[in-house]
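so i finally got all the pieces together for this one. its two components total, 535 residues if u count the protein bits. some of the lines might not be protein, just check the labels. i wanna see the whole assembly predicted at once instead of chain by chain like last time, that was a mess tbh
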Amino acid sequence: MRKIENVMYQMNASRGVDPDNIYFVQVDPTKCEACGECEKHCGTGAIQAINEEGIRQVVNPAACMNCGQCLINCPYDAIYEGVSFVDEIFEKLKNPDTVVVSMPAPAVRYGLGECFGYPTGAYVGGKMHAALRKLGFDFIWDNEWTADVTIMEEGTELIQRVKKPSKDKPLPQFTSCCPAWIKFAETFYPDLLPHISTCKSPIAMLGPLSKTYGAHETNIPAQKIYTVSIMPCIAKKYEGMRPEMADSGFQDIDATITTRELGYMIKEAGINFKSLPDQEPDPALGMSTGAATIFSNSGGVMEAALRLAYEVLSGKKLENPDIKVVRTHEGIGTAGIKVPNFGTVKVAVASGLSNAAKLCDEVRAGKSPHHFIEIMACRGGCVNGGGQPLDPDVRTASLFRSIVARVNRKYRMRKVA
Amino acid sequence: MKDKMKMTRRVFIKAAGITAGYAVLSFNIGFNMTRQAWAAAKDFLGVRQKSVYDADAKVYKYRKSQDNPMITKLYDKKHGFLHGGPCGHMSHRLLHTHYYDRSAGVKALKAKGFKLAI
């Protein structure tokens, strides 16, 4: 185990293992205080008491969607990550025969600064790019660029479904960016799978594009390319290991790390983050727009898609790109957006898997009035993802609770005995 | 008159007590409200979300995906890597996927007696 940005990690870089059998998050029973906070944040009930003392465990990987909300809300540092590619990436960066590509997600640049003493949420995109170059990554192919690609693909798919819904491609269409949500739908709502956009997530698009388009643009053989996905998310580790993600002819994504692990790597390399200049990504697979960066927030994918759908459906220019009615701080939001020459586009946005279940039940009952539904597993979206630096209040406010929990635990143990 | 005075004193004390009580109570309510407002302003999630929308409005030159020159290049009808356009043949090969029914695992868990939230 290693401590990385206040979270414990098992340093396993799993290869050739079925990701369905991996515990990406698990509770250390020796640190668990039986407070039950993790259970409150679990949408599926995968984390639960396993004995009378109240010690929690993820009971089985089949029930865990790998979102990591339990981990970032545990007051006692009792929940750890089970997979880390950090050491393998350091090795690859030293190897002159490997072309190492970094692919940072939108939300990473709103959390990474916190590892270096910046205020909460500070935008550090430029310094992040500079730090990745300093670390020795050969290219920065920014995942925000494929967020724009996702909008082109998913927006077009939505317009096709709206114009001609069918049994294979029914309405409403669900977004497909969030890997915890996808596993959730596959696990608990398999009957709704035709409703989910067939588009891969932005990172699952950037993996194969790196090894085809990127290889072509740079004249580098695809087999030399090692792709590193950098995410605010633990569930992305599962997604990257899905065996079907190999459309480039190779495993599309070779390694996945979280924002916390990137912060750790920058510190380990002795880079002075604050003193770095602001830099741009490598443009061809890197240039991005505001529509891409808002993928970080609950409601952001919806807003970005509407910025395209509005113009295509109406044939008119959208003068003000702010579509504030779909911005959803937390929970469920619904809105109707009037589009000239079309009518009203009805949309719903939900974050948190228990909220997702409510919208899924509505669709299953045939009572959903919506065209397009965005789901993100983490409360408020990827900015609050399970792979982001911790909210310092979660741990510091716990001294009093820690004492209460210990007393309770002693009391319970006596009762059990 | 004397009776009335006595009553007044008693009433005064009673009234003073009640006033003091309400004063403390209302201070508490007022204080709690300020505390809530303060908590909302420093809400960790809200601060991060705001930073994202600020960057969208101020940092990025283009704000719609279709305006990104590197998107135009990718989908260029003549020379683009995805010249078939969004949802075209090449897109379907590389950028679209299908999903798998994974319900068997949780069904087995439930059969073993595990209670899940869904």
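The radius of gyration of chain A is 21 Å.
The CA atoms of residues 392 and 415 of chain A lie 34 Å apart.
anyway lmk what u think
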